[in-house]
């Protein structure tokens, strides 16, 4: 075929073409315009497809193109050839490993005498798509978090452009739609200053932050309409590089009002001390105002000392617990008596933080009602002003939020289950058609059916992973506990995965231990963990390589090791390896698609069976994944 190629072009054209092939950074393929046969290609194309030049020369272009749209693309381009310029489209090329690699192809015309050719430049889109998907997901998560917070958030870059802000911020400052659309930090801050009592001080603070971009600030802002805000700003970094600043604004008007009322009540009390004739009336008035303030809140409020004993509670908290005030206070109830044991450690940590800083970060807990039912809550603690031994707590009922989370999880479960049944039928039907159940089909139809069958298999895997994840999150995943012959189960797992590995030209090598290996766990879940680790090791192994499988006895447990000789795990990805939807994409690492849920599910399974899971990896030499199970 090399001789035919050398005589296909004139010497001058061949010289120019070879120069282009050698100096173009991207993959470049030359095909005949009539029958789309590969006539020439550069080394970059061979590396992208994982094939040699001799294997590809003379092959039909359809042997490497596997996207459905390619069939229509070439029909259209043949009818309307780009005699000048380029035609750009996305496609998929099939590598030697059988992986559909997303690419962007740029097609231009080339003529040698009376003969026409197509020059195809191809760029691997795997990394670009992954980056775009990550950015979309992160942006969505960030926006959801921003909208969920009770604080106003404004994020700006180093050039004075607003990167993001939530509705809470725009509402707090009364920003107009035109002002929001401009995304101009200077214009927004100018509007903010028009709302402040002391605009000059805030302007000076902004100037200082501009001159010292890595500094932090916290300012108490009094507004002309009587409101009070706390504005906190911090520098924003991206991989240790300063990229901007984030402003967080919290409305403390209610707190300030309560503080002023408490100060007023204290002033009245002090005046009463000086004037004994008015002391009793002043104390009663102060107590009445404070009680109205506390009981009018929508949040449960209570007071306690450092020993955990409750000394005060408002009506909201009493209704939440289903008890009377005298029952709570006369029995000298401890806060820990009202919370489930699982949350005692979080409360103790909050008390320690309270002693050190005067306040504690809110934490989730679970209260026990008088009727035995449980109420999920968010608890915040703050040291009572003027006292080192008393604190005040705020309790927010999370029942509605938890119910909403449960409804969402059930919705995902229902949708996934409803997808599974029709998807199984579709996949089965496509499999029968692919293997000739409907007789001989034309190559084009056969190719379309193969693409559809592969996509249905991918979708089926995604639905199964989503179902497992939903069961784990909702606590509906059942785990058996029985004695397992780990050697036999390992052999069965290798046998179940061997066809998949063989398709990748990879083999498994099992080093059986010299003694019997029995563990405690759920055989089905252990088999799922095996399937994930064995298939991953095969995917990332080079051709003709062995995946080593070992069983090692370590004290009170057995350790299972699966080791490959692949490219290893990049350093920047290792801390996310067991996260949901985690995939180390890239032309050298992502050899086959997946949901990114497998390792996260495997980790949950192993931990549910009282085991541990981890990995060791060296870039360029391979990875070793391991998990342990209790020995029987």
TrEMBL record:
Pfam family, one: HATPase_c
Xref: Gene3D superfamilies: 1.10.287.130, Histidine kinase-like ATPase, C-terminal domain (3.30.565.10), PAS domain (3.30.450.20)
Principal subcellular localization: membrane
Highest taxon listed in the record's lineage: Bacteria
Keywords: ATP-binding, Cell membrane, Kinase, Membrane, Nucleotide-binding, Phosphoprotein, Transferase, Two-component regulatory system
Reaction catalysis annotation: ATP + protein L-histidine = ADP + protein N-phospho-L-histidine
Origin species: Undibacterium baiyunense
Signal peptide: none
Designated name of the protein: histidine kinase
SMART domains: HATPase_c, HisKA, PAS
GO molecular function: ATP binding; phosphorelay sensor kinase activity
Bilayer disposition of the protein: Multi-pass membrane protein
The enzyme's E.C. designation: 2.7.13.3
